[in-house]
Every structure is written in C-alpha cells, then in structure tokens.
Write a structure and sequence with these properties.
Bound molecules: manganese (II) ion
Distance between the termini: 22 Å
Strand content: 5-15%
Number of domains: 1
Number of helices: 15
CATH architecture: Alpha-Beta Barrel
CATH class: Alpha Beta
Order of helices and strands: HHEHEHEEHEEHEEHEHEHEHHHHHH
Radius of gyration: 22 Å
Helix content: 40-55%
Structural class: alpha/beta
Number of strands: 11
Largest sheet: 6 strands, parallel
Length: 424
C-alpha cells in the first residue's frame, strides 16, 4: 500500500511553519546548508529484504503482526518507507529467502515503487531443505571439494539471479570457521576459501563487484575464516580489482576503532561499503545510532574526508545498506529511525570545518581538533535532513505520519496477526 500523496502534503502543511523557523536558524548560522541539503537529498540507503519482519534470537521470536509474506509484500513495505522518507530507494535481496520467481514482474514492481536492486546476498550459512551436502563444517572452506563446489555453484546462481534484476554486486558473508582449537588448519582453510572465492570471482560479469564481509565471531566461536578486515582485505587483494571489503558495523570485537579501519580501506580503494546497525556487545543488529551515535558520526567523518580525497561519488561509489534485526520494535519504524540516524550523521560530517581541522592537526592542537569535531556533532541538523526529504516529496515527520495513519493496523488487517516473513 502506498499513501495518497495528499495525506503527505497535508501532514507537511501542518508542520511547515515550525520547520521553516528551525531551518532559517540553521541557514543563518552556517553558509553551507544548501549544499548539505542537496547532498543529503541525493543519498540513498538500501533496505535488506530480511529486515521487514520480526527477527528473533536463539531463545525465541515474538511476531509483530502484519509482516510481509512474500517478496512482493517486502517490496511493498520498502516502497512505503521510500515514499515517506525518500531515502530508501533500494532493496538488497537474500537468496534463497527471496528468490524472484518472475524477474520481469519483480523489476516492474520495483520501478513502480522507485526502487533499485542493491547487492544480492548468498547464503551458505544454513542448510536448505533438500540440499545434498551439509554446511555444518563450513562451505567455501570445507575440506570436501564437493561441498565447496555446491557452495560455489550457489553463489554463481545468486549472481545470475542478480543479473536478471539489475544488481551490480554480490555480498558474500561466510559463517565458515571453527568452534574449537585444533579443529581447523587455518592456512588450509584460508587457501581453500580463496580458491572457492576465485571461482565465484571468475563468474562475475564485467561490471560487477564482489563484497567480502567479515565478522569476528558467531556462529563459530573459536575462529572465523573471514574474521576481520585484515583477512577480508587479503582475500580482496588476492582476488583482484572487482573484490572489496564490506564493513558491517556490528561485526567487530568490542571497542574496535571502526573509523580507522574505514579510513585505511578507503585509502587502499578497497572499501565496498557498509552494513549499518549499532551494537552494545557484539552482532546485536540494533537500530543505527541507538547506542553510539558519536561513533557513527566519526565513521562518516572518515568517509566524507576519504571519499573527497579520492574524488568519489558519495551516492554511487560505495554500497550503503542497513543490516539490522528487529526483535521488539516495529520493523518499519525501526528502519525509519535507522535511515534518519544515517542521514543526520552524514549531514553532520558534511558540516565539519575540514580546512580548520587540517590546520589544527598540522599544529598538533589536539583541543581544537576535538572542538571542531564536536561542534558539528552537537549541532542539531535534523531540519536539514527534513528539508531534503520534503524537497523529494517525502514527509516532514515520517514516523509520526506512519503512526497517525495507523499503517501497521492496516497491514495487520491485510496480512494477519501471525504472518511470518520468508527467511525468518
Ligand atoms: Mn551484514
């Protein structure tokens, strides 16, 4: 369901005077507001097809109601989200949870909602019904060549499905690793994984990329075969120019300096992009910016500075995606909060007085460096983000509108209280 455009217009009209006052105050204080509004307006964050339903933990899952029952309904949800915030114009598919049965019809539907297809995601971290060989002891790293071959073929099929939809990249996240010391020969596991990735790499169309996502632990608790950015970068460097390292914010050990990782990957031209989320302990998949918004801002500072240093296009040269799990919140509300947090952090990074920061760095003026960063971080730029949104036809307060229109209630009426999203 999409909202009637007049509902958004009316919502905006009622809040416009207040918005204009806040906007005028920012415009008065800063000279670069117009530039920031335009950059934020162009920025798009892809929504993964698995984030529209309620996730769960290994202890339980509590259904939220009105969950999308099919790929079409997931796209409907993202279409609605994009209509409200105008910054969620892409979907990232997970195969086999969301295999498009009729690619032409799915492409048509995406066009109706104004959605593009972001990177496709393969899955060799669980066994599918009817699967010949098991991934219990890994997939691309497996000691048995037949298991590796099965996993390679799956990845190649995912690429082919992505080609039919217009995707340009595949993200490979492996749960491969070991649970106990001695279980695995590390060098052997690396070499087998590299060889398997090499076969997948060979199957990439010329304009495609492969993103190698790393994760420190879980489901394997002793070693992960792509456990950190160093290992991912090693694979990506050995594979070739179409291979990149993908950073998922929740996939680090506690207190890792993610902004430094990002800066160096960008320097090497090997940063694929992001899976945004937030975490307190590990791969918690919490709402972006809900735990540590300052870290998110510092990451965007490195992104903006690093992309500008390499003359990169902020919108298209990296992949931007949310990777979160919604266990207690309404998934659509959570995604609205996440996208907003990303855009606010991006806007704040754009506000940083870069020449002054550089000058303070050269002078070893540590105090001034901190003042410059925090001056941007402590400025409330939500009116600029809202302005970008309404210029694109979105709602001034998407979350408020979602609630006042009782959209979840309508979705429950249509899909039922106990519907379960595919893959969850
Ligand atoms: Mn991820």
């Amino acid at each position: 369901m999409l909202l009637n455009g007049s509902i958004i217009e009316k919502h905006n009209e009622q809040r416009m005077r207040r918005h204009q006052l806040k906007l005028a105050s920012l415009k008065d204080e800063f000279s670069q507001t117009e530039q920031i509004i335009q950059q934020v307006a162009a920025f798009q964050v892809a929504i993964p097809s698995w984030a529209l339903g309620t996730g769960g933990t290994r202890f339980g899952r509590f259904s939220g109601g009105g969950e999308p029952r099919s790929l079409e309904e997931k796209m409907e949800d993202i279409g609605l989200l994009h209509q409200l915030n105008r910054s969620s114009g892409a979907i990232s598919l997970h195969i086999p949870w969301d295999i498009p049965q009729d690619p032409a019809a799915i492409r048509q539907l995406a066009q109706e909602y104004g959605l593009k297809f972001d990177a496709v995601n393969s899955n060799t971290f669980q066994d599918q019904p009817g699967q010949t060989l098991s991934y219990k002891f890994g997939s691309l790293q497996h000691v048995d060549k037949n298991v590796r071959k099965q996993a390679i073929n799956h990845n190649i099929q995912v690429i082919q499905q992505g080609v039919e939809l217009g995707s340009k990249a595949i993200t490979v996240w492996l749960s491969d690793g070991s649970c106990f010391p001695g279980q695995l020969n590390f060098r052997g596991a690396f070499e087998r994984t590299l060889e398997s990735l090499g076969e997948i790499y060979q199957a990439l169309p010329s304009d495609w990329k492969i993103f190698i996502e790393y994760k420190a632990f879980e489901p394997n608790f002793y070693s992960m075969t792509v456990g950190d950015w160093g290992q991912s970068l090693l694979y990506a460097s050995k594979l070739g120019p179409k291979a990149y390292t993908l950073v998922d914010l929740g996939h680090h050990l506690p207190n890792a300096n993610i902004e430094q990782i990002v800066a160096l990957l960008l320097m090497e031209g090997k940063l694929a992009g992001f899976h945004f989320n937030d975490s307190k302990y590990g791969d918690d998949d919490l709402t972006v910016g809900s735990i540590n918004p300052y870290q998110l801002f510092l990451i965007f500072n490195e992104l903006v500075e690093g992309m500008n240093a390499r003359n990169m296009n902020h919108v298209t040269d990296l992949g931007w995606m949310i990777d979160a799990s919604h266990n207690v919140k309404d998934p659509l509300e959570d995604l609205m909060q996440s996208v907003e947090a990303i855009l606010v952090a991006y806007a704040q990074a754009l506000l940083i007085d870069t020449p002054a920061l550089k000058e303070a760095q050269e002078a070893n003026d540590v105090v001034r460096c901190q003042e410059i960063l925090q001056a941007a971080f402590r400025t409330d730029l939500r009116p600029l983000v809202a302005e970008a949104r309404i210029r694109n036809g979105g709602a001034l307060e998407p979350l408020e509108l979602f609630r006042s229109e009782a959209i979840r209630t309508s979705l429950i009426k249509k899909r039922g209280e106990k519907s379960v999203a595919t893959g969850l």
